[in-house]
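Q: Could you write out the predicted structure for this multi-component system? I'm mainly interested in how the pieces pack against one another.
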Amino acid sequence: MATITPAIESHSDGHSHDHDHHEIGFVSKYIFSTDHKMIGIQFLVTTLVMLMAGGALALAVRWQLAFPWESMPVIGKLLFSGEGGQISPEFYTMLFTMHASVMIFLVIIPILAGAFGNFLIPLQIGADDMAFPVLNMLSYWFMWPAIVCFGASFFVGGATAGPAAGWTSYPLLSALVESAPGSGSAQTFWLLGLTFVGVSSMMGSVNYMTTIINMRAPGMTLFRMPLTIWSMFITAILQAFALPVLTAAGFMLLTDRILGTCFFIPSGIIVNNAPETVGGGQPLLWQHLFWFYSHPAVYIMLLPAMGMVSDMLACMSRKPVFGYKPMVYSMAAIAGLGFIVWGHHMFTSGMNPALGMTFMTSTMMIALPSAIKTFNWIGTIWGGNVRFNTVMLNCAGFVAMFIVGGLSGIFMAAVPVDIYFHDTYFIVAHFHYVLFGSTLFGVFAAITFWFPKMFGRTMNETVGKWHFVLTFVGFNGTFFPMHLLGIAGMPRRYANPYLHPYLEHLLPMNQFITFSAILMGFAQFLLLGNFLYSMFCGKKVGRNPWGANGLEWSAPSPPGHGNFDVPPVCYRGPYEYSSPEAKALGQDFILQTTPPPEMPESTPEPASA
Amino acid sequence: MKKLWALFFFFWPLVALIVCWIAPDRGWWFPSEAKSPLGSRIDDLFYLILVIVTVVFIGTQFALGYVLWKGATKEEGSEAYFSHGSHSLELIWTVVPAFVLVFIALYQMDVWAEFRVKSYYPEETLKDGPMMEVKARQFEWRIRYPEPGKDLQNQPQPGDLYTVNEMHVPTGKPVKFNLRTDDVQHAFFAPQLRVKQDAVAGLIIPVWFMIEEAGDYDLVCAELCGWGHYKMRATIVAEPEEKVAEYIEQLQADQNYDGVAADEDDE
């Protein structure tokens, strides 16, 4: 720590310097801001808007599955006037492709890494900003070309067709323009959009790693970092190592489409009377490259939520996280194993069957750290002074849903069982339990929890609880029956499953699912309304409304430019709730910045323990 | 109110369990019993995992509900239990799941090997060549049988017999066929047989199954292949071997029929 001590001086110098000379104009404060907090909030607002857009696409998918080929009330006429308000099969294909793309690339990844990563990393480690503020700003603004490209892919294919290869974009469907009429430039725009979000994520990832390694406050050792920071750190590493593979693969697919390079196209294929392909490529290569990124991406979409939930559960149970180090190690294990399980998406793809066995074993192993985390979360609540507020309810929802998502994963990790379940609705149920049930409930909790730090006001509790209950009920009503659809053998991505007699009897269940989905979708207006209303009219609060321990709670709410009015020095771990030290102060929390009683406050040397 | 919330987290897993309990009776379960021996073994593995998972589900959801209930019923003003965790508990809940997971993984290997690893295929499928070629294309299944008495070649032969969306196979013996695609990726999915295999451009993939009971079975596509993905409906007709032979002869007769041959026979 001795090496860090001098930084206190320089840190506070730079800090006061900022305050003396920066008069920030509207544009550089709210639009092209380099302040990590503003960028975080920009990411948050953008992704919430995208969440609604992606949700609307999902509801359209659900409409078709509940009322196949029936014209949509009211909006059908506006959207598909050409087809008399009907969803055509081409349009249906585009709907689920774009639903997944928007939700994954424009909502889940940026809301975790972009919004909360940006907002929380400097505040929780006690830095005044990110290591590279301009790079940080660019990482937000590179989202917009991506949004424009994804948006364009809706329209360039004409009124009815767009990118039609699913978010996984398997060749040859995605590589041969002729195989999906109307998807020509739409698919190309989709790939460009993918490249832009990739660039955006990469900029964020480099920034997060550098910031976390170099800019921690004095005394903030690695094992005093909140689990949120650990999860963001591990996520950033995952992104840095996995993402280039997807970017490269995306470029190869792009050149296959527009330059005829044939990385993924074998010879002698004739589709829709197009000239025979020259060939030399292998479609399975794409699947390997794609999943080499996209499996770690699943953890990129989950780990930060796990970290944040650990923080919030400890705070709302007024008790330290159960097994801090096992939590850190299991996240590291998830990240490490995450790189060697991608083949479990390809059990039925025709790759060497021996690979299926190794990938099955590694996949089973990755369930282990997830199980450890679950037990630790329950252990964290155990014996706590539980506060049943919106944050806690969403966190408990996170744990409950993560259990379901984790357990259903075991079925498809087992190769023989996956032979049957692959590409059925069982898979759809599984990943929605993980990505919505876990990640989004974690995000809802995190929005409520850190809202006071963002805007200096709290969100409305009553509305927050209603939002939780309606979302929880709608969510389970939507996705739990999908397990049963999967067991009944209903394949994914069918515009009209009822063409097959063995699926006909599932129509009522699909209608029930659609009604639940509509409930869940409309419940999100409560969140948006609460967010907007509370931003301007919420109850004003001070620095530490939850009685939490992290460094961010020692800063003003909202923190000014440069974050901390007193340069923070960290004296202890982040979860010392109800500790004897805290009790000595007559409270059940103790800020990481509160000096231990026996040390005079002016000592610059932090505790060595 | 606190207690109500704790009960909420007890209540929903109960609903989930009840739904699963009544599902088979309501037809929300497998389309039928597995109609192939390998399929039955896949079902057995499914039920094994289902039992393990249900136990864990009840255990963990109950634990979650319990700790919430304890939190809700804690006396006002009492202190939270200060603890950073327990090494021995961590050890227990690392080692026990590890064993269970490794057991599940190892227990699956045989069925997978039998389905996909050639040296574990049933003997009959190794002796004979593939019975037919199933070629998926946007949006249908093309079946190519070799001329009776000849072996199937990878390249189409002059005497080959073709059908679309109807696959006749003998009952009571393993049937092996080559799976290919004409264009984009498709997947051969026979739900009642629990068979699924992708058809990948540029690859010829051998697949086998065995049907005991004569009857019609569904064949659908399980890999997104374009706008008509949902339309790739075909039938696997399982019938006694003689009937399949008859069917193929009939197919040959129909295919060779040129409208003249019959008259010549009469003379």
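A: Regarding packing and overall arrangement: The beta strands of chain A are 457-458, 539-540.
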